Amino acid sequence: MPERINPDFRSELRHYGLGPWNECYHCGGCTATCPLAEDNSLFPRRGIRLAQMGLEKSLVASVDPWLCYYCGDCSKTCPRGANPGELMMILRRYLTSRYDWTGVSRLFYRKKLLEILAILVMAAGVIISFLVLLSPAPGLTTNPEAFINQQGGVMINSLSGTAVGHEFVKMIEYGDLAMAAIVAFLLISNILHMFYRVILSDRTLHIPIFAYATELWQLIFNFATQARFSKCESKTYWIGHLWLMTGYTIMFIVIVGFLSKFQIEEIVPWYNWQRILGYYATVGLLLFITYTIVGRIRKKEAKMQFSHPSDWMFLILLLLTTITGILVHFFRITGLPAATYYTYALHLAVLVPMIVIEVPFSKWSHLAYRPFAIYFDRLRKAGLKKQPEPGIVSIIS
Questions:
Q1: One domain, residues 283 and 339
Q2: Is the peptide bond before 208 cis (omega within 30 degrees of 0)?
Q3: Is residue 397 very low, low, confident or very high in pLDDT (cuts 50, 70, 90)?
């Protein structure tokens, strides 16, 4: 059955960052220049053509935009100034909204103020909860010694064994479990929806069962190493992104899955695994954030010249989370209980909406979709097709 064309698709893409660039006329320069394009590949031309033709169904079934790691060579050398690298970024935002079955991602991209409001409301809820629990804590400001352990550090969990301290710990533990369950459900269900659109919806695709197991290493390998980034000319960006990804992933797993083992009363030595992981993640985050913010302000690199509001939201929340986390650590080891607890409230007021809202619905979700896209691409290549995809060959050739 022929695919219906959406004549308004270009207007739809404006919500995701499409600028007034010249139209690609398919000279093939981007494919020839791209270090990630494989032999006999139409990447990234195929995705660009699908977008131009308004073939939404075929585009959603394609993983091509995720195979682009935005080296920037194509945009720098494009004779038309069509900016193919940025268009791939725009299509990734669009696909994120289409994988999300709840419609929240699409709503946030189309109405950015609504996303900001959701973040502020969730942050306010976290702060109010803390104020309610901390207000009856006796002597938090008048008798700070009661909240200091024998090592001179602040007891982050127990609030000196008071009744409110017990409620405080329960709130953190239950909130952490609820956050983990929500994020896991949203991410997993969105990835399953992606799997349906890319693999299951194609009735002509026959994938051998063993391929699901033999190609699984691609998912794990690319998630852990971000190896495709290494094919770009700039190795600095790859190393920085790898440091960011590994640091954030480690902290995400520790905080969401093993908070009771990580957030303990004892002030451990600097060489303890807890502090080493924390320092590793913090340094990686600060370096990457600084590099990216400076790059987006200077606009010298192709991948930094155009910034969508979601790019800045990602950087701002990440920066605030990192800074408040550093302050909590400093106040805690120097024995300042009031500063520790109130800064901790601010830290969670940024961290919670960043994880619950940004991870499943915005730019953070790329960490999950990219390696799965590579995995699904390998599955598609392992599959046997009864017939070529209708219209695609004739459209591009």
A1: yes
A2: no
A3: very low
